[in-house]
Amino acid sequence: MHSSPFISDVPVAEALQAWYDACTAAGCPDRVAADLVPLEDAAGRVTAEPVWATRSSPVSDVAAMDGIAVLARETHGATPTTPLHLGPESYVVVDTGDPMPDGFDAVVMREQVHYVGDDAEIRSAVPPYQHVRSIGEDISAGELLLPEGHRLRPVDLAAAAAAGATRVLVRRRPRVAVIPTGDEIVPIGSPVRRGEILDTNSLMLVAQAREVGCEAWATEIQPDDVERLSTAVREAAGSADLVIVIAGSSAGRDDYTARIVSELGVLAVHGVAVRPGHPVVLGAVDATPVVGVPGYPVSAALTFEIFVAPLLAALEGAAASQRPEVTARLARKLPSVVGMDDWVRVRLGSVGGQVVASPLPRGAGVLTSLVRADGLLLVPAGVEGHHAGEQVSVRLLRRLPEIERTIVAIGSHDLVIDVAATMLRGADPTLTLASSNVGSLGGLVALRDGLCHLAGSHLLHPATGEYTVPYLDEMMPERDLAVIRLVHRDQGLLVPPGNPLGITGLADLGERDLSYVNRQRGAGTRMLLDQELRRLEIDPATVSGYAREEPTHLAVAAAIAAGRADCGLGILAAARAFGLDFVPVAEEPYDLVVEASSLEDPLLAPLWELLKSADFHAEIAKLGGYNTTETGKRLR
Ligand SMILES: Nc1nc2c(c(=O)[nH]1)N[C@H]1C(S)=C(S)[C@@H](COP(=O)(O)OP(=O)(O)OC[C@H]3O[C@@H](n4cnc5c(N)ncnc54)[C@H](O)[C@@H]3O)O[C@H]1N2
Ligand code: MOO
């Protein structure tokens, strides 16, 4: 089979089976070899044979408490009113773990013994074997202690040693070679020129392989050259148990992975019905499984999780580890392509006793979507997506108790929220403030639907000229809501450094042919623009770029910095972050809307404290363009 531009859509389970079958046919071993390893080096390794106990533990009957060893039948008749005296020949002082002296069968705790001269006085009769650990109580010689295919934990090592082992037969660590490819790829630490990409995938994939117990290394970066790539794959197949080739998996001019695998060995699958990860290449070369992971970082990471990790576990003879799952309520609508398994990264938080999942950006190049993710939501191929509020099952990337210590903020983006998140975490490593940016109106809708603890809003109400509060009366008149001022901030036009076009304000949009970059519908900044355009009697249809929407202030700034627009409305801090100039337009309040009961919620208490702190105000001042005189004030 030669590489073709047509990548197939094989369902995941079928693809895995086809790959395993091809590997078997190509003579790939089912398992890596086994080694006898000292117990102290065996943590995390997988047993290659059962561990049988050759010794009992304890090896004899032993005292389970500090006290005296007695013969139970000699204690008959002892009661609190009729204490019994045992002469020195009738007891032996013992400590916890001592072998039981011959002729004694029970222990009385030191606290219940009174010495009267050499006699021990006891005030209750004891049954045989009281406070005695009998031989083999923990482990009996000859019993099966651990099965084959068991990943050894610290307790397993201790038990194996107690049972007489000093070494265990375990699978050697699978060896994984990672081959980065592409003319544009440069090693980490190099200066990055236009068109070059840092080899971040090798770093990640090697670490992922080590995390699941493998020995892993990255080879040199290979150029897009069939000869050299073929040599690299052959060499790696000779020294590794599994070869990962990064990128070159799709249909571009220099995408050779599928072709090379088919020429050197067998290509089982090229293209799976999964996103990210669609153009994955699965095959075998020289009796070694080879996987071509797509170059986009999220695709590479998830391809490892979906395809590579299960095969590596199988090579060790262990079950692939499964992430725990939790049922969550979806914060917003989630469309998905039918016919493809869709792996969506989500942030999680617990609101009103319910775990809530907010989808993160979907792009396969958005690595931070995985960095910020608390879970993975798999929308199976047959499902068209989910409605907002639907119950979904999420695989956890973070532990549930951490998720329960997360304040969920949904709404407009402001850097002050990021500052608050940083300072809250600095003061309490268990506390997270997670914000997702859907615009002010989106935040209020999320609060209405019980999907967040707080909504960040700077929503101008055109009829009243007031911010945020009139919307609450319109949207949720029956709810007891509190509005807390976070800051006042300057809104203005972000323009390239030095303001080369000499832009003076929004009026210029009506008079000159400027290209604008807008915010999405429902964003407070968009409402501000619309209000100002109305006031200035400028028809939005005449503003070039009005329809171009970016989701955050920083994204607007990035578009201007990249020269894709002449100006856009945003905050000073965003201009500073990208070295842009700023033409002030208005000062507006940015507020936090919460259920009134949240003012008493212990989870949010540190936030309310922070709003009052001088350190917080000082950090905000450093950003520039903010005014904190009303920070923390309750407006409603
Ligand atoms: N015509 C089509 N184009 C694309 C398709 C398709 O089906 N038809 N699939 C898209 C999908 S989906 C993905 S995923 C990518 C896969 O791309 P490749 O595996 O061919 O990789 P490249 O095109 O070489 O690179 C993609 C992207 O990844 C970056 N990259 C590559 N290596 C590394 C590395 N070691 N560290 C970090 N980043 C890396 C590379 O620079 C590119 O930005 O193809 C789509 N196109
Ligand atoms: O595999 Mo691509 O990752 O679907 O985006």
UniProtKB/TrEMBL annotation:
Reactions mediated catalytically: adenylyl-molybdopterin + molybdate = Mo-molybdopterin + AMP + H(+)
Associated pathway: Cofactor biosynthesis; molybdopterin biosynthesis
Oxidoreductase found in the keyword field: no
InterPro entries: MoaB/Mog-like_dom_sf, MoaB/Mog_dom, MoeA-like, MoeA_C_domain_IV, MoeA_C_domain_IV_sf, MoeA_linker/N, MoeA_linker/N_sf, PBP_domain
Domain (MoaB/Mog) ranges: 177-314
UniProt superkingdom: Bacteria
CDD domains the record matches: MoeA
Pfam families: MoCF_biosynth, MoeA_C, MoeA_N, PBP_like
Assigned EC number: 2.10.1.1
Keywords: Magnesium, Metal-binding, Molybdenum, Molybdenum cofactor biosynthesis, Transferase
Top-level EC class: transferase
UniProt cofactor(s): Mg(2+)
Function summary: Catalyzes the insertion of molybdate into adenylated molybdopterin with the concomitant release of AMP.
PANTHER family to which the protein is assigned, alphabetical: MOLYBDOPTERIN BIOSYNTHESIS PROTEIN, MOLYBDOPTERIN MOLYBDENUMTRANSFERASE
Family in the record: Belongs to the MoeA family.
UniProt protein name: Molybdopterin molybdenumtransferase
